[in-house]
Automatic annotation (TrEMBL):
Residues 16-588 form the Aminoacyl-tRNA synthetase class Ia domain. Transmembrane segments: none annotated. The keyword ATP-binding applies. Belongs to the class-I aminoacyl-tRNA synthetase family. ValS type 1 subfamily. Its main location: cytoplasm. This is Valine--tRNA ligase. The keyword Transport does not apply. It comes from Methylobacterium terricola.
Length: 903
């Protein structure tokens, strides 16, 4: 006997163990040796990570695809693994050392610190993998990879050495995002732009003549970062700005420093902004760096790695300068203290013109929390222009497609405007750059130190001592190789030839450039083939009000809390059902609870079937049913399977989940079982036996249909129903996707569909016109066709029972004072005179319609106001859109009711 309720907590771990024992998710199973391969690579989460709602969405959608294709008989590889996450992991271990009052990283030395990181990874690095298993992720866990595994490291070395040999990897001095706390370059993705209330200081720079004497004229420049003026090498004005045209080509004396700097004409300067003149500091601003390159300006770095003023021994700073002693005294000051000091010095010399309040975006490190510096330093770069051209062409040719297609524009924008990629990081945890230097500074790039030593010996004609580059590679470099390094490349493995290119990638829009584009570039370069055929981009999971989840807002929803409360299936189904292409998910706990109720509804239906003797019969042939009701239900199942199949194939996860939901809840539970009750409660006979077998068969098909979304519930029901019938069979995870196309019966749908639509229309009309719930009202059919007359003869009792109809009459003309119903082209009516005041109902509905018109008009005015759209928080704008949608839907209902009442 089935348990009264389905308890996810009691079932999930047991079922996961059964999958594991059967090696259900292993790629390359012998029974699928000849099957079509289907491969998908997990976006490797950080080894430091724990499951958040973005992971839950991303992995649920991947699992829907993996389980669906496995059910369709394919040889599925869903490749799992984790990313070494250089800066994040190093930070975790350094914090741990501090908490345990152990020596810090530098005291330990590189080798010992890296050993400690590996030690931490072995102890604590598997958290997120275990959490993914709790979610039901059907990865081939036997193939789990880590971006620092020996095989993956081999791939990293080969790509680096090859790209360097081809001149595409090189060392250069350029500006990077510099984190002064971690003292390393970081990627744009690790930079947060935060609104900060600050100031705009206006300084007067004196103009000098050819001899270097001040003319008495000044140019006023404004800056939010006075401390960087020590590194100014020019002032720029717009070439068409009449105020400064005569000054272009002349020079200024940089206050405090004494350096003579040119006035250059450059379109970067905006005549409409401030004074129209801007200070140019190429070593401390990305835009200024480009201006400096255009005009051949010096790049003077006045900060050290910890963002302190660095002037003593700074040859670039001192060249051509005659700094005041007070300026030199700034050496060693923290940048923010130096800012205050520079402003005070400029004020004391009468060079401070004015100070404005100014709110502006300031870059911060997402992990360190400190202000990021544009910093001039030697780093390793990839010239990605040639690689980007191939990656662009592959999408233009259709070899890889984006879903939704609109994300192609984002991809194109990034790659068409691509800059050299800084791939070095000043960390100890990661893939150390395979470059060695001799005492003269010559660089040797090789896959091993032995090879580098051989290169150096060949160059010098004798053995030479080498020093290895201390930097490590950007994490995105190794994760860019993920689709093929996990398959054994650079070795020619059987897995590589079978599963590459992969079938699909599921990821978020925020890493289209950082990860997707780099996998495309590196995959095409290394293997001359795209890494995936389709890229499905999903949106964000927000809170129920539409706000972005963040710890600071306190609105983060923990997916594991929801799994504990409602089960993994309910959370998974919620995320899939809400994953409309291109739209963020507004997650409410009520939705998860609702889908838990959906699971309960199916469980209760299965118990109902058990109590009514509905058992599986291997000899039962659904195609041979004789009862119209059973033929209809099987046909509806066939339609649902077709809808779910088409939707998953098109990556319309919400449509797939909702099609399955409609069939299970509306068609099977609410209609079919209800219509079948008289048969089940009637005398034994062929009709009853056929209905029992049909119900059992449909529950089995529902299990398969829902399995990609709700694997635990369906696997449990699949096994339970087999035991009931005394049948031995394998796991549902390895069963076959339904093939019910032959079961569609148009004549059965015409008959039962008419009954369903008629009762639905009656119920809707009763509700809209405020007919009392217990009132028995008449139904008249107006000049019905012969087919309808026959249906009434067979289903009249059912219509009366379900529609609370007192009697059904057939008339030639529609009666007065009746609500009209149009059901599949046939006219019916509900005479309501004496039951409700029809005139009052018409007046009420018209009043409601007018009110809705007004509300919709107000919302349209708001949404049509560009100022409102620009200023209002996105969740407020989204709320207005939802209110409008709800208003339009309600107005449509009201108008339908008025049409019925007014005949």
């Amino acid at each position: 006997m089935m348990d009264k309720t389905f308890d996810p907590a009691a079932v999930e771990a047991r079922i996961a163990a059964e999958w594991e024992e059967a090696q259900a998710f292993r790629a390359g199973r012998p029974d699928r040796a000849g099957a079509e391969p289907y491969s998908i690579m997990i976006p490797p989460p950080n080894v430091t990570g724990s499951l958040h709602m973005g992971h839950a969405l991303n992995n649920t959608l991947q699992d829907v695809l993996a389980r669906f294709e496995r059910l369709r008989g394919k040889d599925v590889l869903w490749q799992p693994g984790t990313d070494h996450a250089g800066i994040a992991t190093q930070m975790v271990v350094e914090r741990r050392l501090m908490e345990q009052q152990q020596p810090d990283r530098r005291s330990l030395g590189r080798a010992e610190f890296v050993r400690r990181v590996w030690e931490w990874k072995a102890e604590s690095g598997g958290t997120i993998v275990n959490q993914l298993k709790r979610l039901g992720a059907s990865c081939d866990w036997s193939r789990e990879r880590f971006t620092m595994d020996e095989g993956l490291s081999k791939a990293v070395l080969k790509v680096f050495v090859d790209l360097h040999a081809q001149g595409l990897i090189y060392r250069d001095k350029r500006l990077v995002n510099w984190d002064p706390k971690f003292q390393t370059a970081i990627s744009d993705l690790e930079v947060q732009q935060l609104e900060v209330k600050g100031h705009l200081w206006h300084f007067a720079y004196p103009v000098v003549d050819e001899a270097g004497h001040e003319t008495g004229e000044t140019i006023t420049v404004a800056t939010t970062r006075p401390e960087t003026m020590l590194g100014d090498t020019a002032v720029a004005v717009h070439p068409e700005d009449e105020r400064y045209r005569a000054l272009v080509g002349m020079r200024l004396r940089l206050p405090l420093v004494g350096r003579l700097i040119p006035i250059v004409a450059d379109e970067y300067s905006d005549p409409e902004k401030g004074t129209g003149a801007v200070k140019i500091t190429p070593a401390h601003d990305f835009n200024d760096f480009e201006v400096g390159r255009r005009h051949g300006l010096a790049q003077i770095n006045v900060l050290d790695e910890e963002a302190r003023i660095s002037l003593e021994g700074n040859a670039e700073f001192l060249e051509g300068s005659s700094p005041e002693p007070e300026a030199l005294a700034l050496h060693g000051l923290d940048r923010f203290k130096a800012r205050e000091a520079v402003v005070a010095l400029m004020e004391a010399r009468g060079r401070l013109v004015t100070i404005e309040s100014n709110t502006h975006a300031v870059p911060h490190g997402d992990r360190s929390g400190v202000v990021i510096e544009p910093y001039l330093t030697d780093q390793w770069y990839v010239n990605v222009k040639p690689l980007a051209e191939r990656a662009l062409q592959a999408v233009r040719d259709g070899r890889t497609r984006f879903v939704p297609e609109t994300y192609e524009k984002t991809y194109f924008q990034w790659l068409e405007n691509i800059e050299p990629w800084c791939i070095s990081r000043q960390l100890w945890w990661g893939h150390q750059i395979p470059a060695w230097y001799d005492p003269e500074g010559h660089c040797f790039v090789a896959a091993s130190e032995e090879e580098a030593l051989a290169q150096a010996a060949a160059k010098h004609g004798r053995p030479v001592t080498l020093r290895r580059d201390e930097d490590v590679l950007d994490t995105w470099f190794s994760s860019g190789l993920w689709p093929f390094s996990t398959l054994g490349w650079p070795d020619a493995t059987p897995e590589l030839s079978r599963y590459y290119p992969t079938s699909a990638l599921v990821t978020g829009f925020d890493i289209i450039f950082f990860w997707v584009a780099r996998m495309m570039m590196l995959g095409l370069h290394a293997l001359d083939e795209v890494p995936f055929r389709t890229v499905y981009i999903h949106a964000l999971v927000r809170d129920e009000k539409g706000a972005k989840m963040s710890k600071s807002k306190g609105n983060v929803v923990d997916p594991l809390d929801l799994v504990d409360r409602y089960g993994a299936d309910a959370l998974r189904f919620t995320l899939a059902a809400m994953a409309a292409q291109g739209r963020d998910i507004k997650l409410s706990v009520q939705r998860v609870e609702g889908y838990r109720n959906f699971a309960t509804k199916l469980w209760n239906a299965a118990r109902f079937a058990e109590m009514n003797g509905c058992r599986l019969d291997p000899a039962f042939a659904p195609s041979g049913v004789t009862q119209t009701l059973n033929a209809w239900a099987l046909g509806e199942a066939a339609r649902a399977v077709a809808e779910v199949t088409a939707a998953i194939e098109a990556y319309r996860f919400n449509d797939a989940a909702n099609a399955a939901y409609r069939f299970v809840w509306n068609v099977f539970c609410d209609w079919y079982l209800e219509l079948a009750k008289p048969v089940l409660q009637g005398e034994d006979g062929p009709a009853k036996e056929e209905t029992r077998r049909t119900i059992a068969t449909l529950i089995d098909q529902i299990c398969v249909l829902l399995h990609p979304f709700m694997p635990f519930l369906t696997e449990e029901l699949w096994a339970t129903k087999a035991r009931e019938a005394g049948i031995t069979r394998g796991l549902l995870a390895l069963a076959a996707w339904p093939d019910l196309g032959a079961l569609a019966k148009p004549e059965a749908e015409a008959e039962i569909g008419w009954v369903v639509d008629l009762v639905s229309e009656i119920r809707s009309a009763r509700s809209e016109t405020n007919v009392p719930a217990g009132a028995q009202i008449p139904l008249v059919l107006v000049a019905p066709s012969a087919a309808v007359r026959e249906r009434v003869a067979r289903w009249g009792d059912t219509v009366r029972r379900l529609g609370r109809i007192a009697a059904i009459e057939i008339v030639e003309a529609s009666p007065r004072n009746a609500v009209q119903l149009i059901v599949r082209g046939e006219v019916a009516a509900l005479p309501l005179e004496g039951v409700v005041d029809l005139a009052a109902e018409v007046a009420r509905l018209k009043k409601e319609e007018a009110k809705l018109d007004g509300e919709i008009g107000k919302i349209d005015a708001k949404l049509g106001n560009a100022d409102f759209l620009a200023r209002a928080p996105e969740e407020v704008v989204e709320e207005q859109r939802e209110r409008r949608d709800a208003g339009l839907a309600r107005r449509e209902k009201v108008r339908e009711a008025l049409t019925r009442l007014q005949g």
